[in-house]
Each structure stands twice: as C-alpha cells, then as structure tokens.
Automatic annotation (TrEMBL), chains A, B:
Name this polypeptide is given: Kynurenine 3-monooxygenase
Reaction equations catalysed: L-kynurenine + NADPH + O2 + H(+) = 3-hydroxy-L-kynurenine + NADP(+) + H2O
Domain FAD-binding span(s) in chain numbering: 5-324
Organism in which the protein naturally occurs: Streptosporangium minutum
InterPro entries recorded: FAD-bd, FAD/NAD-bd_sf, Kynurenine_monooxygenase
PROSITE patterns: PROKAR_LIPOPROTEIN
Gene Ontology BP annotations: anthranilate metabolic process; kynurenine metabolic process; L-tryptophan catabolic process; NAD+ biosynthetic process; quinolinate biosynthetic process
Gene Ontology MF, one: kynurenine 3-monooxygenase activity
Record bears the keyword Oxidoreductase: yes
Cited Gene3D superfamilies: FAD/NAD(P)-binding domain
Pathway note: Cofactor biosynthesis; NAD(+) biosynthesis; quinolinate from L-kynurenine: step 1/3
Cofactor section: FAD
EC number: 1.14.13.9
Length: 439, 439
C-alpha cells in the first residue's frame, strides 16, 4: 500500500521534500496557509532575494532543478564593502573560480519548485489551508480552509512540519514532552529598501553582495536580474521609530547609499520592521509520526546567508535516512535528527558570530588582512587549506566538521605565528649575543 | 479606589507576594488549581523538603513569619559526604556560627504561609480553580472550577503569574511577543526515597545534608523533624528503567545507604521519576497588566538549593519596586525585571555548575582542599573574604554581585599562587646559583 505523507508548509524546504518523497514512492499532500504564489502578481508577493550556495545548489540539483533555475540567478562573486570615507573595496568570496554565491528571488525559486513538485506523480498542493490542530498519535491534521472556514481532517502515515520558525506543528508535536528550546530575538530588526535600476542599467556594481558595515547600522544588498538590488537595513529595533527623517540619517551615516535609493523616504515609511529570531529545539520528531524540517527545527539569523541553504540540505539528509530505513519511519526520523542537529546547532552559532563580523569587524584592516591571508593560503595549498567561509558557503562539508577543521587551521596559524616569533626572537638574541658576554 | 491584583498559583512565591501586596493596601485574590493543602492528610500531600537559606529567611522574616516557622525547621550545619570506601566526612556550610541551612517540609512552609496570608485584610484564596485563559489587555483571568467545571471570569488591575515552570500565565502573556526563551531538561531525573527513623531515632547524623556523590548516580538527603530523612536519587533518566533490582544496584553503588532504606524496593517501584527543567525567559511582564514571579520566570536545577529561596526573594524585589513606583504598576514591573533578571540568570548558571560539582568533584581531594582553604581565608579575613557558596547561601548579596566578587577573589588566589610559585622558584634558583657558575 502506498504510504502517505502530509507536509505542512509549502516553502522551499516543504516543497523540495515533496519532490524527494515522491521519488521514493510516497503519496504527498502539501498544506499551505497562504495562496498559491504562482497566482499572485508581483506587487502582492513582494519578494526578498536569497543567496543560493553550494548546499542549496546540491539539494536542488539532486532533483534536476538547477538547469531551470540557473537563468533566474545573478552571480555574486564577492562582497563590495562600502567604507564611510567613500570607496567600496571588493572582497572575493573564494580563492577559486566557481566559489561564488547566486542571488535568486524567493518568488522565482518557490514557483519553480512548486511547478516541479506538482508535476511528480502522487504530489498534491492545497493552498489556503491553515493548520488548526495536529493529532500526533494518529499522524492526522485538522485544517481550515481560509475564506470559507471549511474544516477538514486528513490522516497520513506521517506529518512533516515545514511551517517555519513559529511552527504550529512543532508546538503541537512537542506539547508536554521533555523539550529543550532556545529561542532568541536579535536586538536588531530589519527593513527592506530597494536600489532600483536607473533607466534599465544598474546603479552600482551588480555581481556583488553590497555591504555597508557599521556598529550602529548595517545595510546588505543583493543584486537582481533586472539590474535592481534589494537592500536590507539592519538597526537596533527601537532605532527604526526614533529616526524621523531617514534621508537625513542616510546622509550622515551612509552618504554613498542615498544616491542609490530614490524611494528611500517612501519605502522607509511603508515597509514594516522585520524581526530576526534564532531557534534551537529538540526533539525534532515524535516517534514515526511527526518530524520537522527547515526553520521549524532550526531558525538562524540571516548573517551567514545559510538559512535557506540549510533547510534545503535538511531534505537531502532526511531523504538519505529514509533510504537507509525504508520500512521504519521512526528510525529514519531519529537518525535524521541524530545526524543533522549537531550541524545546524553549529550554524546557529556561526550565524550569530557573523552578525558581529558584519557589524564590527568588516572595516577593520586586521580583519581584511586575515581574510586575505586565508585566501592566499587556500590558493597556495589547494584542497589542503580551506577557509571557514569557503567550507560553509562553497562546499557541502557538514557545518560542524567545517568548524572543527577551521579550528585546527586556526591553531596551525597561531603556532606558525608563535614559531615565527620564536625564530625571530632567537635570531635577534643571537645577533645581540655575538658582541656580548657569553656564559 | 482599592486596586485589585489577581495571583495565579498559591505556591510559596504567590502566597508570600499576597502578604506583601496586602500590606501595600491591594485587594488580592489567589487562584490555585490544586485543593487547599491544609485539607489534605499527610498521605495525599506527599511532601518534599526544602533548604531554607538567608534569602528565603529574610523574605519570610520581612512579613514576620519566621518566629512561627523556626520550630518547623531542622538545622543543616554542613554536608556529610558519603565516600565509596565507607566513612562520611563532614564539611561545614560556613566559616561562622549561624552560616547554616534549615530543612523544612514544603507542606509545613506553605500551610503556614497560607494561614498567614489569609489572615491579612483583603486577601482571598480560591483553590481548585484552573486558569483557562488570560486576557492580558484587560488583566482578566478566565477560570474553571475543578470538579464542577463552572466557568468564572475575574478582572483585576493586574495579574501575577506565580504558576511555576510551565506557567500558563507566561505562555498567554508572551504569546506573539518578541520572546527570548531558554528551556533545558537535565539528562538526569530523580526519584524520592526515604530514610525512615529507626524506632523514633535517626539512622544517621541528623543535622546535615547527606550527599552520596557520583558520576553516574547521586543521592542527596535532607533531615526532617521526626528524625527521618528524605532522600532524592538522581540518575540519568533512562537508567531508572534499566535498573531491574534497585537493592542490587544500591549494594554495588551505595553500600552504606542500603541499610538506611528499608523500603527501598517498594518506594523505587512506586515513586515516579521526576524531571528537572531550567528556564530563562523574557519578558517578565506585559505593560502594567501582567507580571511573573518565581519558577514562572526563572526555573533552576535544584543543585544549589536556591530555587525556592530565589522565588521568595523575588517578592522582596517586586515589593520594593511597587514601593518606589506606587502609582505606576508598569514602571514597577519593568524595574523589577531590570533589577532582578540579571541575578536569576546567574543563579541558573551556578545551579548548572553545582550539578557538575556534586556529581564529579565532591570526592576530589583537590576540591576538598580548595573548599577548606576558602573557609580558612574566610575565618582569617572575616567580612573581607567570603566564599561564593557563603555569599549565595548565607547572605542576601545579589547573585550576580556575589559571582563577580568570587571571581575577583579567585583572581587574587591565582595571583597569590603565581606569586608564591615565583618566590619559591627564585629561592630555588638562588640556592642553586650559590654553588654554580655566575655570569
């Protein structure tokens, strides 16, 4: 008998998983609270853009989707760091050709994914269906149709919660269990501001992620295919309201950005303040009945650009566990958490650290020199010296393994520093002693 | 007009706060899900015992309750550490007379507190009333009477959540807000086991906290007034089920305890496994409408013996804030969180560390020597050298201030160690050089 999996949430992770499950012969129903994004016009579905990197690419390539997606992406070959005194030095993302990121509109990614998933045998999407309750013992979901309010109960062999950081599936699955849960809101929030194309041509270098670093305010901008860029202004949450005149604030703080943002005042007034949450949680599954993927089990701050990539990679790991235990969903789910959670925990840590890097250290000459040394070593010792950023963004080395290796490399650098210092000191002492007393 | 405060939860913190609020002229209604503990016989209200220390004593003394409570307590002058090879060296709790803890049955404490609170003008208790919902904007609670299920809605000027680690007031107060929440279950659980009196006399030294330390299993026992002791066995959660024959396990692991526990097998089979949770959370209040006290805003592991003492101390701090802002509950609540949370966060950390100490380090000769040195310094430098344990348990120095001072003392000890080492080394070198070559 064909087993049936119910997925709650038709974001990138839920939709990609639907494709993986269909390939394994499951019947898959995906329930999503929002309307079908393919039916919304551009204005209704104001879209953010995402940086697709090696892990996401690998996961999407695995279901044969990258050929369709490549034309929808814009390469980002490095960071353009906008300095307060003017000038925007370019910092390449990698030491090697191909170590680049790819900017893609979330809308383009998700509509491509849904089209692909819907074409698989056994996969059905049900938009505008809100989860009302979960019966974790029965793997059943109670749903309400938006608008009509019509109630619906569906039972499957298992339920997958792919419903984001504030997952209702998680809340109901974990109810009354011994739950470890770490949730933190960043003191900073964000607001989207666009850098439109100027008569069709880009106002600034296109194939880069633009960063205006700063301890009290920070902008990150991704390029789009239409030569515009989508900028995100990060500020301490309470600052957004305090700024009465955003143009004045920008003139003082980001003088070279203001010329790129003709709609600044209007967008600042109209766009909402977004909040950033980090979540680590356990358990990720309930017996063979319910499991979580993506932000539902590990939400991270966006500062490493890995949130969506990690969510897509979850599908690869879960799919592999289902392959290893084809007749035992409970073992597959347990193995999935065991294999995956240590790595997403590390990503949480790295994403927090990268906020500090973007905010405080990106302008530091020491930091820039260290980055250059790392890339130089990577070029001199190809495959043997790999900077942490490269491992996280341009490889599929599991996150915790990448961090462990980076720490070993750091230790070598430190020893090298100590050794160099010792050799230098010995040389100095030798030369001093030549003419001095000997004992 | 008299302002009315609704307290949810009639544990030690909620009940003590009722007394404080009555003194400030509030009308106070306390709602508690369970029956009135004064109406239960001993068997129904199986009671744990608690270690009352300086903070709790101060808070209770503040409402004039200690005179009634003293006769219900048993002094604990130190720890008796049961070693694997037999013998139970005694480690005093403090360097000075009076630096001791007081064991009290939770039932004795709470019934005394409720009697006292109920005698205050304006205080009413409503037992067997379960919180169904909270309207945080209106400071209103929706309740159901246990048994009859009768529904009731009560509106006050503010609601206080004193309903424990899994506070429903907290869940409803924080719903949809930017909530930071850290919740962790310890991998170890516990089971209560009694050391009954032997024909009326104590089977072991009474005026001590008894500890059987161990990396894989741990017992802590508090003395009672009837010459019995209440023991708590701590084990990794999954171990409880694995142990088929508890007597065999005790013979191998705690040979000197088995003779003290004639009902071991029966109690092991009948008593449930308890779980230990640690919670840090924020916010602690919603405008001037809702605030949290006790475990509802900071649950800690029991290994520093401070959980209830900290909850009672919350009342002192909140009461002081209400005194400072008598006409502005919102400011009082905000000030209470600002003043108090840094300290309970530190207690959370210390309680986690003390688990490691009890489990791994208590038997170490180095640790015992360090403890002795600390107490010796405290005797030599009265008031100027205060060990961390003393500050936490025998003073009302705020927790974070105590930790900061202990760290300064540690730094001095380390420097003293380095200095002593350097002097010794210099002496050795001098003595060596006397007969050796000079340069």
């Amino acid at each position: 008998m064909t087993r049936r999996i119910l997925i709650v949430g038709a974001g990138p992770a839920g939709t990609l998983l639907a494709c993986c499950l269909a390939r394994r012969g499951f019947q898959v129903d995906v329930y999503e609270r929002r309307p079908d994004p393919r039916l919304l016009d551009e204005e209704e579905s104001r879209s953010i853009n995402l940086g697709l990197s090696a892990r996401g690419i690998k996961a999407l390539d695995d279901i044969g989707l990258m050929d369709t997606l490549w034309p929808l992406t814009v390469p980002m070959r490095g960071r353009a760091i906008h300095l307060p005194g003017g000038g925007a030095p370019f910092q390449p993302y990698g030491a090697h050709e191909g170590e680049i990121l790819h900017s893609v509109l979330r809308r383009d990614l998700i509509t491509t994914l849904i089209d692909h998933a819907e074409a698989q045998p056994g996969v059905s999407f049900h938009f505008r269906h809100r989860l009302v309750d979960l019966d974790r013992e029965a793997a059943a979901v109670h749903l309400a149709e938006e608008g009509t309010g019509a109630a619906l109960t569906v039972r499957g062999d298992a339920v997958i919660g792919a419903d984001g950081a504030f997952s209702q599936v998680r809340a109901r699955m974990q109810h009354g269990l011994r739950v470890d849960h770490h949730q933190e809101f960043l003191e900073w929030g964000y607001k989207e501001l666009t850098i439109p194309a100027d008569d069709g041509s880009a106002r600034t270098r296109l194939e880069a992620l633009h960063v205006w670093p700063g301890e009290d305010a920070l902008i990150v901008a991704h390029p789009n295919r239409d030569n515009s860029l989508t900028g995100t202004l990060f500020l301490p949450v309470e600052r957004f309201e305090e700024i009465a005149d955003p143009e004045e604030f920008f003139r003082a703080r980001f003088p070279d950005a203001i010329g790129l943002m003709p709609h600044l005042a209007k967008e600042y007034a109209e766009h909402p303040v977004g909040h950033l949450v980090s979540i680590r949680t356990s358990p990720w599954h309930y017996r063979d009945r319910v499991a979580l993927i993506g932000d539902a089990c590990h939400a991270v701050y966006p500062f490493y650009g890995q949130g969506m990539n990690a969510s897509l990679e979850d599908c690869t790991v879960l799919d592999r566990c289902l392959g290893a235990h084809p007749d035992d969903l409970g073992r597959a789910f347990a193995e999935y958490q065991r294999l995956r959670k240590p790595h997403t925990d590390v990503l949480d840590e790295l994403s927090k650290q990268n906020f500090v890097e973007l905010r405080d250290r990106l302008r530091s000459p020491f930091h820039l020199a260290r980055k250059k040394a790392d890339l130089l070593l990577a070029r001199l010792l190809p495959g043997r010296w790999v900077p942490l950023y490269t491992m996280i963004s341009h490889t599929t080395t599991p996150y915790a393994d990448a961090l462990a290796r980076a720490r070993r490399q750091d230790a070598i650098l430190r020893w090298a520093g100590v050794a160099t210092g010792a050799v230098a000191l010995a040389a100095v002492r030798r030369s001093t002693r030549k003419g001095g007393p000997r004992c």
